[in-house]
Design goal:
heterodimer, A: alpha+beta, Cytochrome-c3 Hydrogenase, chain B, 3-stranded antiparallel sheet, 8 strands, B: mainly alpha, 15 helices, 69% helix
């Protein structure tokens, strides 16, 4: 009893208290739990607790064939489902040395960019919502619907497509695909100006985002923050430029970089990326060559024994897939380096000494997708 | 003047006299108070329900949606259905919460808004009490609501609620100054705080036109400050659903939540009607001096239409910017008040006093 009374009390931090943001919280967009240490309204520490939506995808991959693994990668970052699928396809194709038809490359690049646009649209919507501008949410979703309709027509599903297969595509694109994509580009060029009007140019928004959560270039590199979040700090980390896959070495596009490293810079990078993606699609959409929609593949894919690594640029950053094969039809080990998980790491550092409201804005600007964190 | 056809004074007086003839004075007073209370309670419920419906429709309009359209024609019974649902919901009590304060808080909020409505003139002779310090009474009473909000946040035993309540306390107390000072600008012009006289003085022109630039500035500041005072977006920091889940009323359910909800809309109605009364002439029709024919036509539109039309317009303005702007941060909110609105307001009062002294107003 005496020992209990004489316990040191240093561990009790005076005037600081903890608050659980999540697992059920409107602005974590899922089941992320942040234990936030606060002093009044000022954030002192953020401890992310992961695992609320852990499904063991990496372990499940060890029991699945490569065709089946594609369906699992959809479920990681569901907003860039196509791009995740693309990574697995590239891994298998690279390991087997398969050259996919030109047509497939064109279609994959276009669809990847469409996926990037719709992901950024949803990010924009939820970013506005997190800052309290509920109308943004509906504007973004309204425009995203157009892309989802295009997806639905060609692949039969709106969110989890599993459209790519190793060696090509599940089926050919719908005859309307090109026409509707061009219609969408025309439509969205007009609508993206509305986005700027309602949020980018709004004084409340700029006050809320400029100088908030500043991440230096060194910090971005040290923490491995890739994607638009890293590029907002001036780190040229675009996999599409550095390690081009599909047709990215043939199309012309700008790697959007900004040096400020704050929430506003990350916001503007994504806004400009949507425009760049539209530029990429415009270059390709009229030139899709005729041909097969898949290369000739064996029904059972066995990778030669060895280690493989493939990286792609998802809407959130660099997705790396590390695969060890022992020559069987299932991989011995699959490891996903998912961008959201790595980007989450920097949240604590850049949101210290900010207000709670800033923590929400910073979290939104990192564009975290929770199933991508937990896998 | 022609608007005497809509004068309720004699009508009220005849009821008053009749009651006093039939009943002893004490009981007559009780009956009068009961009647007024019931009328206001009814009006309160109807206006509250209608405003919730209006908000949902305006919000839907801003967001390219249809809004409620299933219950009744154009969904007008949607809010009634919602209200019945809230009535039937379970009242949840949180462990270790302060039960007494937890139960009292919604009533304080709703009583504060209910008291403020008493002094507002809806038409000539149509008001419960005509104080000689009416404006001051309304400002004083409407700021009582913050007590309820603070109690709700404190007694809920929830950190989100507490943060929301503290924010709300800081916010309402700060913006109370701007509300008071912007009304003071008009009081300088009017020279009275009695609502009926303030309205009467606007028969030759509404104060927003009479008072030159200072009146316009005062109106804009009043609009901003009163939006902040009613905890509505872009100043809805006390609720801030993306940060604090629901702020001070996180732990409330059922009818108690409905009280907070209704009080928010009623506060909006009250500040809009103060703005309409003080700046836009209340129930006074639109008059242009010299155009007698035009003025007569305007007089035939009933004062209740004028009053509710103006109030609805200001409410509509407040709804528009709620659904357009993102939310401010707490330090920016207080900066806006103490560094911008308050100094502007003080200079504005001097400006107005100067204009009144020189007799430059119309």
């Amino acid at each position: 009893m005496k020992e209990i009374i004489n316990l040191p009390v240093h561990s009790i931090e005076e005037e600081e208290y903890h608050i659980n943001m999540g697992p059920q919280h409107p602005s974590t967009h899922g089941v992320l739990r942040l234990v936030v240490t606060l002093q009044g309204e000022i954030v002192k520490k953020v401890q992310p607790h992961c695992g609320y939506i852990h499904r063991g995808i990496e372990k499940m991959c060890e029991k699945d064939t490569f065709q089946q693994i594609i369906h699992l990668t959809d479920r990681m970052d569901y907003l860039s489902a196509h791009i995740n699928n693309h990574a697995v396809c590239l891994l298998v194709e690279g390991a087997l040395g398969i050259e996919v038809p030109e047509r497939v490359k064109y279609i994959r690049t276009i669809i990847d960019e469409l996926a990037r646009i719709q992901s950024h649209q949803l990010w924009w919507s939820s970013f506005g919502m997190d800052l309290g501008g509920l109308t943004c949410f509906f504007y973004g979703l309204r425009d995203r619907e157009h892309i989802l309709d295009i997806f639905e027509e060609s692949f039969g599903s709106r969110l989890l497509h599993s459209y790519y297969t190793p060696g090509g595509l599940m089926r050919d694109i719908h005859p309307n695909f090109q026409k509707r994509t061009k219609e969408f580009l025309k439509y969205f060029r007009k609508k993206i100006r509305d986005y700027d009007k309602i949020l980018s140019g709004n004084i409340i928004f700029t006050e809320r985002s400029k100088g908030i959560g500043t991440m230096s270039k060194e910090k971005a590199i040290n923490y491995g923050v890739t994607g638009p979040s890293g590029r907002g700090s001036g780190w040229a980390c675009d996999v599409r430029k550095k390690f081009p896959y599909a047709l990215y070495d043939k199309v012309e596009f700008r790697e959007v970089l900004r040096d400020e490293g704050d929430t506003y810079a990350r916001y503007m990078v994504r806004m400009d990326e949507m425009r760049e993606s539209m530029k990429i699609i415009e270059q390709l959409i009229d030139n899709i060559p005729e041909g097969d929609f898949t290369a000739k593949m064996k029904p059972i894919i066995k990778l030669p024994a060895g280690e493989y690594y493939q990286r792609v640029e998802t809407a959130r950053g660099e997705l790396g897939i590390y695969c060890i094969s022992d020559g069987n039809k299932t991989p011995l080990r699959m490891k996903f380096r998912t961008p959201s998980f790595v980007n989450l790491g920097v949240l604590d550092i850049i949101s210290r000494d900010m207000k709670i409201a800033d923590l929400v804005a910073i979290g939104a600007s990192l564009d975290l997708v929770i199933p991508d964190i937990d896998r | 003047m022609a608007f005497n056809i809509y004068d309720f004074t004699s009508f009220n007086q005849s009821i008053d006299q009749a009651l006093y003839e039939w009943l002893p004075p004490f009981w007559a007073l009780i009956v009068e108070m009961t009647i007024i209370g019931l009328v206001f309670l009814l009006a309160y419920a109807i206006v509250g329900l209608f405003l919730v419906y209006a908000e949902r429709k305006v919000c839907a309009f801003m967001q390219n949606r249809v809004g409620p359209n299933r219950v009744g024609p154009y969904g007008i019974f949607q809010t009634i259905a919602d209200f019945i649902k809230l009535l039937m919901k379970e009242l949840v009590y949180i462990k270790n919460s302060d039960k007494l304060l937890f139960n009292i808080a919604p009533f304080i909020v709703i009583i504060a808004s209910f008291m403020a409505i008493a002094a507002i003139p809806f038409a000539k002779g149509l008001h419960a009490i005509d104080f000689d310090i009416g404006i001051m009474y309304v400002v004083a009473v409407s700021s009582l609501g913050v007590v309820g909000v603070l109690l709700a946040g404190w007694s809920s035993n929830n950190k989100y609620s507490l943060i929301g309540a503290m924010r709300s306390g800081a916010q309402i107390i700060s913006y109370e100054l701007s509300v008071g000072l912007s009304l003071l600008t008009i009081i300088v012009l009017a020279g009275t705080m009695q609502f009926s006289q303030v309205v009467e003085m606007q028969s030759t022109g509404w104060f927003i036109f009479k008072g030159h630039i200072p009146a316009v500035i005062a109106f804009l500041i009043f609009l901003i400050a009163s939006t902040a005072e009613t905890n509505r977006g872009p100043f809805d920091l006390a609720e801030a659903e993306s940060e604090l889940t629901a702020g001070f009323h996180t732990e409330y359910s059922g009818i108690k939540f409905a009280f907070f909800f209704l009080a928010e809309y009623m506060n909006m109605f009250i500040v809009a009607s103060i703005a309409a009364t003080v700046f836009w002439g209340g129930w006074m029709p639109f008059h242009v001096s010299g155009w007698e024919g035009f003025n007569h036509v305007m007089d035939f539109i009933p004062p209740l239409v004028w009053y509710f039309g103006k109030t609805a317009f200001i409410i509509w303005l407040m709804m528009l910017f709620k659904w357009t702007f993102p939310r401010l941060r707490i330090d920016q909110l207080l900066n806006l008040e103490w560094k911008y609105l308050l100094p502007i307001n003080l200079v504005n009062i001097l400006f107005m006093a100067f204009i009144v002294l020189m007799g430059w107003h119309f």
